[in-house]
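Thread title: Can someone regenerate the structure for this chain?

I was given the following input by a collaborator and told the matching structure tokens would be attached. They weren't. Posting the sequence so someone can regenerate them.
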Amino acid sequence: MQHPLLSKIKEKSAEYFAEVQAIRHHIHSHPELSFEEHATAAFVAGKLAEWGISYQSGVAGTGVVGIIEGRNAQKHCVALRADMDALPIQEENDTTYRSQNAGVMHACGHDVHTSCLLGAARILNDLKAEWEGTVKLIFQPGEEKHPGGASLMIADGVLENPKPNAIFALHVYPHLPSGTTGFRAGQYMASADEIYITIEGKGGHAALPHQTIDPIAISALVITGLQQVISRKGNPLIPSVLTFGKIQGGFATNVIPGKVEILGTFRTMNEKWRYEAHQWIKDFTEQTCAAYGAKATVEIPVGYPSLFNDPALTVLAEGWAKNFVGAENVQELDMRMAGEDFSFYTHHVPGCFFRIGTSKEGREFTYPVHNSRFDINEEAMITGMGMMAWCVVNYGS
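Best answer:
Regenerated them for you:
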């Protein structure tokens, strides 16, 4: 039997598309970096106020949280989350809505996420006499920057009063055409921790290495040795990635420097192994450097945890998506070693992080996220706002 709100949500998604498109153009052309989303937050709050939706500003700095109560509001609470921050990238697209802020761009689709959540809020507010429970609208800052806006919003009480029974979020996905969705139950994305290593030796003339402690030579041993540590000490059935993206030291061909700095990232799908690996990285680096007379300082600030999609909730959401966009437009996603701070929520509340396709027939709008030419087929937002609203009205029904 067809859900009585299916056709209404589809109709309203199409009806509000032009308005949501204009919202996206405004946000995209005025991007703000992580934890600096003051104008974006004010714009979001203004829209909620315009539609008569109660909200709280200033959560974790620039976060905004809205509340819509349906019938029998105490029955349950569903949270919907969107991130608002942009990246330090110079946009190269030539559109009427291209970034007006030099060196800042919505290259990861957070403008799309925020616009879709505003569209879903409008739909749910219109239909609040026809669905049960409460929906909490989480407009989050700082997804792109440590320690992650999600962790700060949780610390500021976003998962309390009322406590959500479930939380959903969507993310743009240029690998799929618009109108499609993607799901993966269970482990989906990796933890993401940054690594900062400083190796202090003793500088000197390149022709007299015996009078020095060469941090460049030692750093080569550390980098290659740590790859062996991860592959030999970690269970091969647990996905793990150790990558060093920056090494800095030295200033001439004939000078051995006194110091080398190495920056990298460690990612895995298992929280226990994650912290064991941190210790192995520190111990191996310090002991290797000490063996050659150097001193190592290793800092591994704890970043985002792994993202776990609650299996039961995700199976339900995938079924709802098949009803909403058709079974042929629902895809099974592969695991990804990228990180997402939505993971913080999934360690407190059953969560489902899903994808909406944003390319046009798989031929246009295919630039990846974090690219200076990233853009979307905007009709994807019809699916995005509709799916968010659809998850809320189906939950608990």
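Residues 193-299 form a domain with the Alpha-Beta Plaits fold (CATH 3.30.70.360).
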